[in-house]
Amino acid sequence: MVDGTYTVRAIAMDEAGLSYTTSVQIVVDNTTPIYITSVTHNAAAPLKTGDILVVTLIGSAGGTATFDIGTMKHGMIMKEIVSGNYTGTYTVIQGDSIINATITGHLTIDTTTISKDATCTVTIAVQVSPAGHLKKIIVYPNPFMPNSNTEIIFGGDNVPQEYRLTSHANIEIFNIAGELIKTIEETDGDGKAVWDGRNDDGERVASGIYIYLITNHNDEKVMGRIGIIK
């Protein structure tokens, strides 16, 4: 049936010969609903110059898809590799820099556009600064999903020094009630420490928001939040 609004009339007659008429309107819309099932990417660690970010969008077939990298890049073209599976890439260039950027996928069919964010953020850090001070420490992946990731990384030896931990930095992790659940220390001078999502008793912590406090011997402090999703 062609799209449109139709009126259906029904006439009934009783035993006495009296007739009754009723009308019902029916709307016919054969348009296939547009949807996005998921938006994912391959950046499990901070990206640097020359690295390639790959974004995949799963949704309605036959559309036009693009993705954004936070506020840094918009409208990056994606190709429909197979029906309903769109892939786009971006190669990091010198000067790119953004922390915990949300990857947003957009899908357009006819005149309708819908959008969906990837669950995990992306960090692109190619700026270099002197070591020795706690500044904006990179923490990734954030949020952390134990079913998809094995550990949370603080700093790292593959990120610019500005975003690394200082030597022997101490990390305290608190739950939302302010209770200390885990203490970690950077011990080998590579500017990196990891947390496997367990408390000091070796138990997996529950889903939720956790606060980390990083300190060092220079009385410098950095505080932030980690989300854990099971």
Q: Work out the radius of gyration.
A: 26 Å
- Count of individual domains: 2
What name is given to the CATH topology of the largest domain?
Immunoglobulin-like
Number of E-type strands: 18
Query: CATH-wise, what's the superfamily of the largest domain?
Result: Immunoglobulins
- The CATH class of the largest domain is identified as Mainly Beta
Give the overall form.
elongated
Number of DSSP helical runs: 0
Integer average pLDDT: 87
Percent strand: over 45%
Strand order, largest beta sheet: 3-4-7-6-5-9-10
Question: What structural class is derived from the secondary structure elements?
Answer: mainly beta
What's the story with the biggest beta sheet?
Answer: 7 strands, antiparallel
Q: Span between N and C termini? A: 46 Å
Give the CATH architecture of the largest domain.
Answer: Sandwich
Which residue ranges are poorly predicted, with pLDDT under 50 across at least 5 consecutive positions?
127-131
Helix content: under 10%
One letter per element, helices H and strands E, the order comes to: EEEEEEEEEEEEEEEEEE
3D architecture notes:
- With 230 residues, the protein is mainly beta.
- The protein folds into two domains: 36-124, Immunoglobulin-like (Sandwich); 128-228, Sandwich (Immunoglobulin-like), CATH 2.60.40.
- It has no helices and 18 strands.
- The chain has strands spanning 4-13, 19-28, 36-41, 52-59, 64-69, 73-82, 85-91, 97-101, 103-109, 112-117, 122-125, 139-140, 152-155, 170-174, 180-185, 192-195, 208-215, 221-228.
- The strands form five sheets. It has a seven-stranded antiparallel beta sheet, with no helix packed on it.
- The two termini are 46 Å apart.
- Residues 127-131 have low confidence and may be disordered.
